[in-house]
Amino acid sequence: MAEFHVANYDARYCCFSPDSRLIAAAAGRTIYVWNVTNQDPHLVETFIGHTDDITALVFSSPSSLILASKDSSVKFWKIGAPSMDPVTANSGSTLSTSPSIYSISLQPRAGVVISSDNEGMVKIWDISTGLCKASFQTPAGRYFCRDVQLIDGRLIIVWYQDDKIHIWDINKGESLQTVYPPLYTLQDLRISGDGSKVFYLNGKSIQAWSIYTGELVGEVELELEQILSLNPLQMDGSRIWIQLKDSSTQGWDFGILGSHPIQLSNISTRPSLDFIGGVSWKTSGPCWIKDRVTGKEVFQLSGRYAKLNGVQWDGRYLVVGYQSGEVLILDFHHLCPQ
Q: Cys bridge to 14: 25, 52, 197, 324, which one at CB 3.0-4.6 A?
C-alpha cells in the first residue's frame, strides 16, 4: 500500500494514467503527479496555473493531462516537459484561422476519429496517439449538414446540398447515390451506426434512406415544437435518438431495411456516464460528463472549449470538433464501470 500527501487542500480529484504508470491528483489550484511503477512511489511533477479551484482532471495520453477549473478555463499540461504555462482555453482566447470542423465521427472499433471541415477536407485521427493518419479532399465544401463514417473499409461522406443528400465514396472519389428527400426544413443528417442508412431529420419526421439504393426505408412522424436535433452522442446499429427541447430523449430502432421503426422503451443500454449540455452547439456551455448513478460531475468543458461544432460520446471516448479547427479526443476508461 502507498500513501500520497498534498499540502493545504483536500485531494478531491484523482486518476491513473492510461498505462497505469502515473497517478494525478488535484488539490485546490494545484496538480500533483506521482510515479507508481516501483516500490517507492515518488512525486514527479507539480503544476500550478489556474486562478481558482480545479473541478476535473483526466489523462489525455500517458504523459499529458487536461484540467478544468472554476476560473472558466481548460488547461493542457505535458508531463516531463520544460516548465511553462500550458495551452489555456478560455472565453477571451484568440482562435486560430484553421478551417472550422463541421462533423466528428467516433469509430472506436477501428481505433479512429474522423473529422471533416468547412473546406471539404476529411481527416482520420488515431485515437491512442492523436496523430492524423490520412487526409482526403471531398466536394462537401461549406455545406454544414454532413457526416462521415468508415463502412466495411470504405470511407463514406454524406452531405446536404441543393435540396439533395449526396452520398460519396471518398476512397474512390465518386458518387454512390443522390437522394431527393421532401422539401422540408433540414435539421440534421447522420449515418446509422451500422453504416446502412442515412438518417434525415426534417421539420416533420426522421427519415431513413438506404446508402446502397437511395430509397426511403423508414420514417417516424414527430411533433415539430419538441424537436431539437438528432442525438449524435449515442449511435448504435440501426438505432437513433433525438434530443427534445425539454432535455428528454426519445429513440427508435429502424431494424431491418423496410421494416417499421420501433420506439425504444428505455435507454438502459446507454452509458452510465452522460454527456450534458453539448446538444445545443450554439450555446457557450459549460458542458460536462456526469455519472447518472451517483449524480456527480466528473469532467467539464468550459470557456471556448464548451463551444462545440461537433461531438460524439460512446460512454468511454469523448471527441469534439471546434470552429478553430481543433479536434479534442478524451478517454474516460478509468471512470467507466467494468
A: 25
